[in-house]
Amino acid sequence: MARRALITGITGQDGSYLAEHLLSEGYEVWGLVRGQANPRVSRVRRLLQDVQLVRGDLLDQGSLISAVEKVQPDEVYNLGAISFVPMSWEQAELTAEVTGMGVLRMLEAIRVCSGITAARGAGSGQIRFYQASSSEMFGQVRETPQNERTPFHPRSPYGVAKTYGHFLTQNYRESYGMFAVSGILFNHESPRRGAEFVTRKVSLGVARIKLGLATELRLGNLEARRDWGFAGDYARAMRLMLQAAEPEDYVIGTGRTQSVRELVEAAFGAAGLDWERYVVCDQSLHRPAEVDLLCADPKKARTQLGWEPTVSFEELVAMMVESDLTLLAGGGDPHQDSSWP
Ligand code: NAP
Ligand code: F7E
């Protein structure tokens, strides 16, 4: 029988790539969607027609219990979160509730529906749980590159909330014997990335300038360095973690690091433009506390899961610029649900 997966965050970038990947592996895929009339749900219905939808919200314990009872999943992927770091300063409490406490609610839904107690433990045939942890937990990094043993020092309410979810996942594994793991994923991007994140903001900015729709691009800190990979590659890693013999956490990244300045150079270069003529540095876009340098050591994922990234930084940037040029040249709107390639 087909394995059954439940994905929270199905309307987001990663939810879409993971759903496509699981469908291609023969899974029956269910996506948790929230809200009375969430406009992003129609995007999922259009792009992911084989995904079945179930209503629920990470803020609502009862709805998660109902969703798990209804779907009876073999695997749960918890990708739902408030994921935009600057928003986590503006709405710190909501971020803690969704990105942090949401993990507790999802784990409790699985525990209650499976009849797991500390005395009885999880046993075999249990629901396997994946938590979307983040390199933002490393924050002000203690060593470079960062691996599974690098201590955390989060720098935003988002990073703090993810750190809570990470340790809670580990605690449910240790307390109840649950197959609960975290993927510590470094930044991953695609033509489906939200327009608020820097890679997509840059690829859309380049496309607008190239097409004569804008004359400048305003950015914040150009010196921050990130390890950027392709989201499709990272979705494969999530599934691999839940197929492992033992529940363990893994760092997923490329092992290369680039500055925002290098990203900008590459993106404008891909469209034959000189970035220095168009980019305006805007102090108001700097963050209260920055994560200066992230660079993954993905050795454990390579050796134990056989996972490798397939798209280089240069290929990723070219892919995103080309996609946004096509989108905008065709009159598309990146904020509309029809825009996903
Ligand atoms: P994204 O595009 O921002 O998607 C976030 C998802 O969370 C959306 O589907 C959103 O659904 C859902 N969500 C928000 N509030 C919710 C709530 N109260 N209940 C249920 N769902 C809710 O994020 P992404 O880039 O795909 O990332 C997926 C996960 O990986 C996130 O947890 C993120 O923090 C984590 N992560 C991402 C990266 C990265 O570089 N992309 C790296 C490390 C970790 P709505 O449509 O209902 O708003
Ligand atoms: O910023 C700098 C900014 O917003 C990257 C999320 O998926 O990855 C993501 O978090 C860097 C930062 O991603 C602008 O200061 C400069 O240093 O694209 P971002 P992020 O904060 O790294 C992690 C792993 C996650 O888990 C998160 O969910 O770029 N930067 N100028 C800018 N950033 C933005 N957004 N906009 C600018 O204008």
UniProtKB/TrEMBL annotation:
<keyword id="KW-0456">Lyase</keyword>
<protein>
    <recommendedName>
        <fullName>GDP-mannose 4,6-dehydratase</fullName>
        <ecNumber>4.2.1.47</ecNumber>
    </recommendedName>
</protein>
<dbReference type="InterPro" id="IPR016040">
    <property type="entry name" value="NAD(P)-bd_dom"/>
</dbReference>
<feature type="active site">
    <location>
        <position position="163"/>
    </location>
</feature>
<feature type="domain" description="NAD(P)-binding">
    <location>
        <begin position="6"/>
        <end position="320"/>
    </location>
</feature>
<dbReference type="GO" id="GO:0008446">
    <property type="term" value="F:GDP-mannose 4,6-dehydratase activity"/>
</dbReference>
<comment type="similarity">
    <text>Belongs to the NAD(P)-dependent epimerase/dehydratase family. GDP-mannose 4,6-dehydratase subfamily.</text>
</comment>
<keyword id="KW-0521">NADP</keyword>
<comment type="function">
    <text>Catalyzes the conversion of GDP-D-mannose to GDP-4-dehydro-6-deoxy-D-mannose.</text>
</comment>
<dbReference type="Pfam" id="PF16363">
    <property type="entry name" value="GDP_Man_Dehyd"/>
</dbReference>
<dbReference type="InterPro" id="IPR006368">
    <property type="entry name" value="GDP_Man_deHydtase"/>
</dbReference>
<dbReference type="InterPro" id="IPR036291">
    <property type="entry name" value="NAD(P)-bd_dom_sf"/>
</dbReference>
